[in-house]
Amino acid sequence: MSDSPEAGAAAGSGGYGRLLRYLKPYRWIFTASLLCMVLAALFDAFSLVLLIPFLRSLFGQGALLPGGGRNAAERVIDWVVGGWLQGATGLEALRGICLVVLAALLLKNVFLYGARFLGIVVQERIERDMRDDVYGHLARLPLPFFSGTRAGQLMARVLTDTRETKQIVSYALADALRQVVTAVAYLLTMVALSWRLTLIAVVLAPVLAGALRPLLRRLRRGFRKAYDEQGDLLSILEETVNGVRLVKAYGAERYERGRFEEGSARFTRRLIRTEAVSQLASPFSEVLSALVALVLLWMGANMVLGSGSMGPEQFLTFITIALRLISPVKALAQLPAKAQSSMAAADRFFEVLDTPPEPAVRPVPEGAGGDGVRPVGLEREIRFEGVEFEYEPDRPVLRDVSFAVPRGEVVALVGPSGAGKSTLVDLLPRFIEPGRGRITLDGVDLRRIDLGALRDLMGIVSQETVIFHDSVRANVAYGKPDRWGQEQLREAARAANALQFIEALPQGWDTLLGDRGVRLSGGQRQRIGIARAILRDPPILILDEATSNLDAESERLIQAAMDRLLTGRTVFVIAHRLSTVRGADRILVLEDGHLVESGTHDELYAAGGLYRRLYEMQLEPGAS
Questions:
Q1: Disulfide: which of 161, 280, 532, 594 matches 345 by Cβ 3.0-4.6 Å?
Q2: Mean pLDDT for the chain?
Q3: Would you tell me which CATH number, out of the four given (3.40.50.620, 3.40.50.150, 3.40.50.300, 3.40.640.10), belongs to the domain 464-537?
Q4: What count of other Cβ atoms lies within 10 Å of the Cβ of residue 196?
Q5: How does pLDDT run across 5-15, given as a tens digit for each residue?
């Protein structure tokens, strides 16, 4: 995964339009929220306009002008509350106006609460949908993606980036619309009071938005880099937690703390630099807002004291509303700067979603069978034909490997470290794809077989059995917990020599095994993995030194379980201890990516080649 700003910009091109798709399922809730905002803004503006009759009554004038007033604002007042104020004394008028203002403010806040609550509903549901989408997509990505991406970066994409991105989809959009609605309500009221002064404000206000434009590009790049630094910091934390035994065994606490503090310092420095640019937006826009207000004061004073075209109470109300207008205009001016943080997170979010998932089938120029084949088993053989593979250009791991494995044969893969054994078996479930050549199952190229159907044919038991923080039952029946009944689970556990210790656990099959199976010994974890494979009952089995690093008793129990597991299956065994594969039907010897020898133990030992040298190095007395 690329973490460069350029890659992020590419991933995020047109990103806001893509983000709005997450709003679509909740458009009616969002519309209701906007309606509440509009009503709250109207009641707010109306409560401010009531300053005109309030000031008139306070200074002994009539609350209402004869004939409905000189402008649209006063005609609205006369239409709404004229019946209450007509003919009222000064104190009666003031009391009536206060009651109307109180009612208007109450309604404003009821609608404002409704708008904010509905906005929260939309915001949290959007974050949930984004989080579910990116997690679901991650699960479908090919294995090389994970080997090339740090775990902390992935956690940041799923949790931090979705939380940050939702702001621009829901909260920022809703806040922008709320500020627009409020500003429009204030502007309409100002036009009703004096269109000339409003025109001046409208001409000067866009300066606020345009003046901040140079900051935006720097902010987006800065936040993008800050999120990358945060992902690296999470990776260091994850590595330390998972490797805490090694850290303590080697007394590396100070070293790991230094690594973490260095990453933390980089993250902090990046945030400080980015926030320093972000904070320029507020004072800059405030100075410009004050300049607009001063111009309005000067022009309005001339209209009141000079031409007399505006009454003092109208001018005071106009200035009050104009000052209130500064807040939404300022918020709208600052919104693009604040949005850069969310857009930077959106770039990273879409990088994951734009990474192609594993295809169910791949187009193959030549090969037998049609695309999307769903075999129910292995009938004849698995065949490798001139297979080559490389992780990096010009550094091949497998070179022109060809062999066939008939149904029911146990094949052991041996060779020095780095010879290509694990790469070869990773090709079978299509964790990776061959660069050249092909692998066929009963004559059908694996790339033409539906990926789910192909992997249903295979069981994998590795040296490091993965145990999830879940119940024993969920771990044994992993992936399809409703497919098997309790008796089937018990039979699989019995065959794996695991039933006795499982039923001795505090809650038996419902016992939670802890993170990575911390409550189990190594041998117990391995037997859980074997029970998982036995329950799946796959026709093809891949074993990666499943009995290594165990005590003698655990190895004896596991070897007995393995013997039951091998019966009637086609098996690929990666063997590091050659004593464990003497009984294999065939042994394939790999060296530097080449298949150099093939045969039984006796045949290869008698040939005196690489296999014999490896065997004698491990088993002959005095061998080094």
A1: 161
A2: 75
A3: 3.40.50.300
A4: 12
A5: 333 443 444 55
